[in-house]
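Table S2 (text version). Query chain:
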Amino acid sequence: MQIVNGTGQDSPVSQLLAYFKKSGGDGAVSAAVWGIIAVVLTIVIAISSFEVIEPGQVAVKVNNITGGQEPVTQPGLVIKGPFGIHSVYVIDASPQTFVMKGNANTDELHVKELTVRASDGSNFLFKDTTIIFQVIGAQAVEVIRDAGPSNDFRRWMRPLARSVLRDEFGRESTISVSDPSKFGEATERARTRLNELLEPHGVVATKIVTPRPRFSEDYENLIEARNETDNQLSVIDSELARAATGRDRLLAEVNRDQNKIIQERRAELESALAEAPANQADTKRKADTYRIETVGTGQAAKSAAVRQAEELRGQLDAEYLARKATIEAFKTQPIERVMKRLGEKLAGVTIGIQPWADDATPSRVRIEEIGGVR
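Corresponding structure-token output:
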């Protein structure tokens, strides 16, 4: 920003002076005019004492008295002394794109496509090469010192980028440069070497984007055929690796299953072998216990049966003697007592008697029970 000197014919100061002359030099008017002039000068000086740094910009603040230089990397307002005490130079530090494309140079950031001579003598070209670069904010002083206060640092890209890329890609042969891995290594080498030349001047290349190199039509066809063959080999290798992996997996599964069966069977046999002595002892113990219990039960049953038989024999003998005594007693009893006793025995018993005769002149009466005693 430039400081307003306020001396032009149309400036506010000139207009105020003309008004002052017309007023005849009145003291009050003169004081008011000079006050306005002071305010205007203050505003002009204040405005010229600031510089605005936008996002994506860096600046260098130069003390024109002492010659000191200070880089400014943060966006915002930069205070500078009035009347040329300080100078502030703003540089665009946002990412810049340098493109090599087409058949002619259009400006400092757009130049013709890159042609490279390979190490085996053949030529190949890149249809569209892009380099992304930017100013290093902390080294803005070096940028101003080497390239000036404008964006002239962009002019370094055309000679440096083309020469470095030609050298690094020229180390490769047509076969190696068509290999993506070798091609990537060459690109990284070119970026490293380009930064070795740019960084001392405060600029860095952050990325190089190059398409697949283009060769003659016959060579392109050979490359395509080779790529197809490589792809087929890759597929075959992949199939072989997958088959080997599948075979190893199946063998591992079979071995695992068989080992599991063997381990389970071995565990079962070892468990059975370990349990056999215990089972034998337990079976023997149970047999002995059963024998003892059975013999004891039989002996107890025998003793009980013998005792019961003896008790029954005693009861029978007592009953026999009682019946015998009763019979003997009945023998000595009169007939009337016998009949009475018999009547007591037959109390409640109904006996049906039906006389019948088996001859015309019965001489005795026989009693026959008909239908049983009720």
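Notes on Table S2: DSSP finds eight helices and eleven strands in the chain. The CA atoms of residues 64 and 85 lie 6 Å apart.
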